[in-house]
Amino acid sequence: MARSARKQQILQAALACFTEQGVEATTIEMIRDRSGASIGSLYHHFGNRERIIGVLYLEGIGEYAARLEAGLIETLEPEACVKLFVSGYIDWVVANPDWARFILHNRGRVEAGEMGEQLREFNREHGRRIAGILRRHRDAGAFKPLPKECFVSVVIGPAQDMARNWLAGRSKTALAEYRDLLAQIAWDSVRQH
Amino acid sequence: MARSARKQQILQAALACFTEQGVEATTIEMIRDRSGASIGSLYHHFGNRERIIGVLYLEGIGEYAARLEAGLIETLEPEACVKLFVSGYIDWVVANPDWARFILHNRGRVEAGEMGEQLREFNREHGRRIAGILRRHRDAGAFKPLPKECFVSVVIGPAQDMARNWLAGRSKTALAEYRDLLAQIAWDSVRQH
DNA sequence: TGAAATTCTAGAAAAATATTCTAGTCTGAT
DNA sequence: ATCAGACTAGAATATTTTTCTAGAATTTCA
Question: CA geometry: angle at A164 spanning A161 and A167, to 5°?
Fold first, then answer.
């Protein structure tokens, strides 16, 4: 089997523990207990605690990145492209709140850990593909002149901060209500006027 | 003495360890070693490992929030206010990169931990003060209609994402170079047109 | 001042947690 | 049926955090 069921059980149990207790506070024992796996099985699949975190993180951004790229490829208009960054992001967060919270809060941990290079490599590749998709709009003059490094931050930054607040329970209103507004703001920030 | 020198030594040692090894990987022993304190002293001042993290976090956002609020109070024009959010933020990050990295990466941990309520309380108060300062501009119609919950995210979101990238070493260009550009974008996003 | 109270420091001991290791069981291919 | 490799189990070990007892330094105030 490509990815043992047990391995997925462990990852799901881990995410549930992380959500309820926080990453810091969950012990291997809790994950073992909740997943029904044994210590041996756990270490067979992941090797150490940090790698459970790393795999969960990488699978999460992988899922999201694949979805975004797939959407972008079949979106022709620059406005729709930019708005898809935001609305797609918010849709994903709303559909996967626990995973999204985990990802928003653990980038630093994974970056600093033994899987950091793998994460950076993934981000480089993803960034390259995104840049490729956007190039034709950029070349066609659809966007205002903006350093390449700033583009994605400007587009996605506000939505990300809103998502953080919403996931922390700080915002009462459903995040989805702001979806189109934030998409419009993003487009206004980068379009050629 | 209001805040024992030893306590500050421990916090500084902890931040240095966190920067070099990552929060996960630094042990109490490393902090003890680097600070020159004893285990007893460490636990006398903080009680447990998590509280070292919590105090460092709260001191950091406290420092930054105080600076921002002080600046805002003596800034009269709405445009200057909004731009100060961004430029003040970037200045602080550039001046305190280690502290900023630590704060950007550990909100979730502190929020989920035993000091979470303290953090939320701080954020509520800070948010209230900020809202108070901005009210007159809002009432004067300086900003475009925008849900209250979105305003700060829209203003600060892009700068925050850029800061994250810069601190992770992902961006070659100095963050400060984008300071005025990001401030202008923030202002364009919220001003009444 | 000087004695009592409090704060702080020390490091050994205990508790909690993560990881390794050995001995298996199960599954699928030949 | 049997062999190889993937997987599971849990006891043993190693690491790390936390507690505890004792004593040093500092502050308080009579």
Answer: 150
Domain match, B184 and B116 both: yes
Tell me if B107 and A112 make a contact (CB, 8 A cut-off): no
Question: Residues in chain B whose beta carbon is closer than 8 A to a beta carbon of chain A?
Answer: 21-25, 50, 101, 104-109, 111-113, 120, 123, 146-147, 149-150, 152-154, 156-162, 164-165, 168, 170-171, 173, 178, 181-182, 185, 188-189
Asked if B88 and B67 count as a contact pair (C-beta separation under 8 A), the reply is yes
Beta bridge partners of A143: A191
- End-of-domain residue from the set A47, A66, A82: A47
Measured CA to C1', what is the nucleotide nearest B5? C8
* A163: nearest CA partner in chain B: B153
Domain count across chain A: 2
The span from the CA of B45 to the CA of B43, in Å, is 5
Q: Answer yes or no: do A5 and A72 share one domain.
A: no
The CATH number that applies at residue B29 is 1.10.10.60
Tell me: do A152 and A69 sit in the same domain: yes
| pLDDT tens sequence for chain A (193 residues) | 336 789 999 999 999 999 999 999 999 999 999 999 999 999 999 999 999 999 999 999 999 999 999 999 999 999 999 999 999 999 999 999 999 999 999 999 999 999 999 999 999 999 999 999 999 999 999 999 999 999 999 999 999 999 999 999 877 689 999 999 999 999 999 999 8
Contact B38, B10 (CB under 8 A): no
Same domain, yes or no: B9 and B81: no
User: With contact defined as beta carbons under 8 Å apart, do A10 and A31 qualify?
Assistant: yes
